[in-house]
């Protein structure tokens, strides 16, 4: 009788964890670049009442008789499907159409990876995330940059505040437009010409097993022992957008969460009913135990 109670308790515990993951998905339905979670279950060890027997000259064979002892958590997966791209028309909003992650880092050079492409400029003209992590790529003036990661030619990307405008192509190339007025004044002649310069190329990281990445909050991931590393050519890599299987960059858009509300509400109902059914199992077992206790009366 106690086996049924403990089996139901394991069901309560694991359906609660499923509900936790589902609720987190719903809470992040409008989080840029968020990838939803998914819970899977597996059965626990089964107690064997009788083993299997093979057929003989007198009787046929019989199957094993086992009683399951409950359920346990199998996996909590991060589902890296493509989210829809929402147009913002902001030049520093970058969406990835395909595979790959933006590479960002702190001043010490610790790398993080993200799909959230809402970037900004700090007072020095560096492209940063909302939390101040620097966007990395290859730059033309690498001798003047001071942040390199693992000799992969990854630098902080800086846009001169004095440029007239800039644009970011789908291949990650950043082009600045400078007015020719200053050069004309130096030569004593008026000039309305502009000059376009390619100053940097955003790089994307890819992994042998992106589902193995670890979420650390703030839309950031870090690599783990099972994700592979973009700094190891055997388990990942770093490439410009559109190369080596990476997606292209769509400037002026942001990748939305890949959470499907209809699916999540359905999973919430399943978790609720599963939780409710297991409570009924505990209640029923308790009632039967109560009947046994009443036999003495």
Automatic annotation (TrEMBL):
Its main location: other. Residues 96-174 form the Flagellar hook protein FlgE/F/G-like D1 domain. InterPro entries: Flag_bb_rod_N (IPR001444), Flagellar_FlgE/F/G (IPR020013), Flg_bb/hook_C_dom (IPR010930), FlgE/F/G-like (IPR037925), LlgE_F_G-like_D1 (IPR053967). It is found in: Bacterial flagellum basal body. Keywords: Bacterial flagellum, Cell projection, Cilium, Flagellum. Residues 251-295 form the Flagellar basal-body/hook protein C-terminal domain. NCBIfam families: FlgEFG_subfam, PRK12636.1. Belongs to the flagella basal body rod proteins family. A flexible structure which links the flagellar filament to the drive apparatus in the basal body. This is Flagellar hook protein FlgE. It comes from Aliibacillus thermotolerans. The gene is flgG.
């Amino acid at each position: 009788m106690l086996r049924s109670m403990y089996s139901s308790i394991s069901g309560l515990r694991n359906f609660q964890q499923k509900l936790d993951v589902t609720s987190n998905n719903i809470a992040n339905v409008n989080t840029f670049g968020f990838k939803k979670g998914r819970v899977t279950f597996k059965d626990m060890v089964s107690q064997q009442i009788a083993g299997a027997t093979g057929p003989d000259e007198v009787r046929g064979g019989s199957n094993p008789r086992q009683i399951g002892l409950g359920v346990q958590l199998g996996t909590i997966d991060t589902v890296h499907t493509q989210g829809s791209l929402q147009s913002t028309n902001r030049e520093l909003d970058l969406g990835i159409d395909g595979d790959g992650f933006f590479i960002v880092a702190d001043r010490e050079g610790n790398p993080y990876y993200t799909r959230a492409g809402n970037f900004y400029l700090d007072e020095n003209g560096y492209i940063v995330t909302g939390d101040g992590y620097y966007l990395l790529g290859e730059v033309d003036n690498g001798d003047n940059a001071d942040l390199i990661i693992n000799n992969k030619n990854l630098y902080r990307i800086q846009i001169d505040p004095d440029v007239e405008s800039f644009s970011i192509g789908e291949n990650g190339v950043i082009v600045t437009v400078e007015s020719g007025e200053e050069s004309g004044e130096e030569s004593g002649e008026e000039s309305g010409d502009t000059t376009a310069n390619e100053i940097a190329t955003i790089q994307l990281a890819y992994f042998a097993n992106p589902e193995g990445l670890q979420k650390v909050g703030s839309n950031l991931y870090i690599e783990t022992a099972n994700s592979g590393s973009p700094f190891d050519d055997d388990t990942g890599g770093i490439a410009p957008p559109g190369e080596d299987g990476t997606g292209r960059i769509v400037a002026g858009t942001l990748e939305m969460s890949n959470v499907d509300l209809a699916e999540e509400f359905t999973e919430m109902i399943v978790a609720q009913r599963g939780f409710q059914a297991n409570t009924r199992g505990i209640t029923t077992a308790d009632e039967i135990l109560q009947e046994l206790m009443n036999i003495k009366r």
